[in-house]
Design a protein that fits this description.
Layout (H helix, E strand, L loop, with lengths): L8 H8 L3 H9 L7 E2 L5 E2 L2 H15 L4 H8 L5 H32 L3 H11 L3 H16 L6 H9 L10 H15 L1 H19 L8 H16 L7 H18 L5 H14 L2 H14 L8 H15 L2
């Protein structure tokens, strides 16, 4: 080859803008091997090396490693194969960066300690499968071995937290709180007691399902009473209680008497843990579901009114 067409490393550096040290590294790695050597032993390159270096610079800017670049240049893999694999890797990196951004925003918003930030980061990195395992472990622990309402348990298993790829800080916050809640022994114990009570009721013949109509009736009647400022211990509250206990008596085919009210009070006290409603609220925030009306204040008012009515 004509010596005038050969380029030194210095020539390549000036034409490509790369450092001599970088070109020498690529040359030693066999990515841009020298075409020849000068009588003094210096490396010389042809014009093809210039084009090869331009391509290497482009591929490095896209984030490809030297092994992949070497395979591509040696035609061991095709450009579409490399592009597809790298696009997939970049997608993972993008999801990770979005998650880190959401965690940092949540930390900044809530003023977390370093320990809390570490926990948030670990929990936020959970995969969908890991999140499902955490919730299923909670369900198995609290409902296992009991004749609980199968419809309700199925609803719990279906309603899994699905943290989006680009979550809002509120969703990260909600997921961390939900994860902590489901691992809290106190909450697990409270839900277990609810499940045991429900199983005992089913053993006594309660097969009336989730009682959606009763829940709606309580929400409507008590909601109006709360809006009107009705004191749970007032005569006006007694009328609301009488109407609702009559509904319970019809639904459960029981007499509307003191025993029914004692049974209903126990039922409300066991099922009225506000953390149970908090569970569903957090799940809705994580999954971007519409937030339903709060029931905890409704059942708290109903419980107080029942106690007041029972003392008369």
């Amino acid at each position: 080859m004509d010596g005038d067409t050969l380029l030194t490393i210095g020539d390549l550096a000036r034409r490509t803008g790369l450092k001599v040290k970088t070109i020498r590294y690529y040359s030693d790695a066999g990515i841009v091997p020298p075409t020849d050597r000068s009588p003094a032993g210096y490396r010389l390159y042809d014009i093809g090396a210039l084009a090869r270096l331009d391509l290497v610079s482009t591929l490095r800017d896209l984030g490809l490693g030297l092994t992949r670049i070497r395979q591509l240049l040696n035609r061991e893999v095709s450009v579409p194969e490399v592009a597809a694999a790298h696009a997939e890797a970049l997608e993972v990196q993008i999801r990770t960066l979005r998650l880190r951004r959401a965690v940092l925003r949540a930390v900044a918003k809530r003023g977390s300690t370093p320990e809390e930030m570490n926990l948030m980061h670990k929990l936020a990195k959970f995969s969908d499968d890991e999140r499902r395992r955490l919730i299923n472990d909670f369900i198995d622990d609290t409902f296992g071995g009991l004749d609980a309402n199968a419809e309700f348990v199925d609803m719990l298993r279906t309603a899994m937290p699905e943290l989006p790829d680009d979550p809002e800080p509120e969703q990260v916050d909600a997921w961390v709180e939900l994860a902590e809640l489901t691992r809290d022994p106190g909450f697990r114990g409270a839900v277990r007691r609810m499940a045991e009570y429900q199983a005992a009721e089913r053993a006594r013949g309660d097969r009336t399902g989730l009682h959606h109509e009763l829940t709606e009736a309580v929400r409507d009647a008590v909601g109006r009473a709360i809006e009107d400022g009705t004191d749970p211990a007032s005569p006006g509250a007694a009328a609301v209680v009488d109407d609702l206990t009559a509904r319970y008596a019809r639904t459960f085919e029981r007499a509307d008497d003191a025993r029914l009210r004692h049974w209903l009070l126990k039922r409300l006290e066991i099922a009225g843990d506000p953390r149970a409603e908090r569970y569903w609220h957090l799940l809705a925030v994580i999954n971007g579901w519409p937030l339903g009306p709060a029931l905890a204040p409704v059942f708290a008012w109903f419980t107080q009114a029942l106690r007041a009515r029972d003392r008369r």
